């Protein structure tokens, strides 16, 4: 069985507070883009989990979320089965585009189907949430408002197709480092003005023409995690500014970074900007894509 695991971007992301258990309470709007990993999953006669990839940067062992997802299903169903997963990795790592989460989500759905485990969609979402905050969204897909720690999901209207340029610096930032560097209590005490995520939701749910809707979405892009990420890696701000200087409608870092996406109106501007970044040796990933 071959399945695709689609990347995501955040159109907005707000962190409201840090919970006593260390998790952060968030509000965010996420949507899929047409960049995907491919997982080839097949049954093994021997009762073992075997992960393979041509990408040598990946740890293909029990620390991988794909492996953890399979073990979770075995424990959930009480069934012991052998499975091999060959991963073709296309989503950039440490990008804030949910690469690992997308792979885990695709694994949960595919293994459940392949081995006829009978785990309900609702239970798959719960299992996914126990592995990672972005996994329930990756199981659901589409355009979604997520709250809580990311596990409370509300499906939104489909987006008009948007042209995107995605640029990622060579330097990566771990989600853990970014969240640990976010002093949300300090920001709140200092009167930090949180952007209203409901404004983005209202635009997405409106009946306006696609062109108007895209322009309004671009104006409302916001990610509070840019505050610590730009301090850790100022190049993020430079990339955003370069996109804006070259006629993008709006630019934003996705998730905890370090990928930045720009929304463009026409092919000429997006190609010109891509060529500018191709000359910058601090960048290791440049891709033109669309929202799904």
From TrEMBL:
Record's keyword annotation contains Cell membrane: no
Catalytic activity: 4-CDP-2-C-methyl-D-erythritol + ATP = 4-CDP-2-C-methyl-D-erythritol 2-phosphate + ADP + H(+)
GO molecular function: 4-(cytidine 5'-diphospho)-2-C-methyl-D-erythritol kinase activity; ATP binding
Binding annotation for ATP: 92-102
Record-level GO BP terms: isopentenyl diphosphate biosynthetic process, methylerythritol 4-phosphate pathway; terpenoid biosynthetic process
Record carries keyword Nucleotidyltransferase: no
Coiled coil regions, renumbered to chain: none
Physiological role: Catalyzes the phosphorylation of the position 2 hydroxy group of 4-diphosphocytidyl-2C-methyl-D-erythritol.
Record protein name field: 4-diphosphocytidyl-2-C-methyl-D-erythritol kinase
Species of origin: Lachnoanaerobaculum gingivalis
């Amino acid at each position: 069985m071959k399945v695709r695991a689609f990347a995501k971007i955040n159109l907005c992301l707000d962190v409201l507070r840090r919970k006593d258990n260390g998790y952060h309470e968030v509000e965010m709007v996420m949507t899929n883009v047409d960049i995907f990993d491919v997982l080839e999953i097949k049954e093994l006669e021997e009762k073992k989990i075997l992960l393979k990839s041509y990408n040598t940067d990946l740890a293909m062992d029990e620390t991988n979320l794909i492996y953890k997802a399979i073990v979770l299903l075995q424990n959930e169903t009480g069934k012991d089965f052998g499975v091999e997963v060959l991963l073709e990795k296309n989503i950039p790592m440490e990008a804030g585009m949910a690469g690992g989460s997308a792979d885990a989500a695709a694994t949960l759905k595919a293994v459940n189907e392949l081995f006829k485990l009978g785990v309900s969609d609702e239970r798959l979402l719960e299992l996914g949430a126990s592995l990672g905050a972005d996994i329930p969204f990756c199981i659901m897909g589409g355009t979604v408002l997520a709250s809580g720690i990311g596990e409370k999901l509300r499906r939104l209207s489909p987006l008009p197709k948007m042209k995107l340029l995605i640029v990622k610096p060579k330097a990566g930032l771990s989600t853990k480092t970014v969240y640990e560097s976010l002093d949300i209590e300090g920001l709140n005490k200092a009167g930090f003005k949180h952007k209203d995520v409901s404004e983005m939701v209202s635009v997405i749910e409106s009946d306006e023409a696609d062109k108007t809707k895209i322009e309004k979405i671009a104006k409302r892009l916001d990610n509070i995690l840019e505050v610590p990420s730009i301090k850790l890696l100022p190049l993020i701000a430079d990339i955003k500014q370069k996109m804006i200087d070259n006629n993008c409608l709006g630019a934003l870092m996705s998730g905890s970074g370090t990928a930045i996406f720009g929304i463009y109106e026409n092919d000429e501007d997006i190609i010109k900007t891509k060529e500018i970044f191709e000359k910058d040796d601090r960048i290791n990933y440049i891709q033109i894509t669309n929202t799904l």
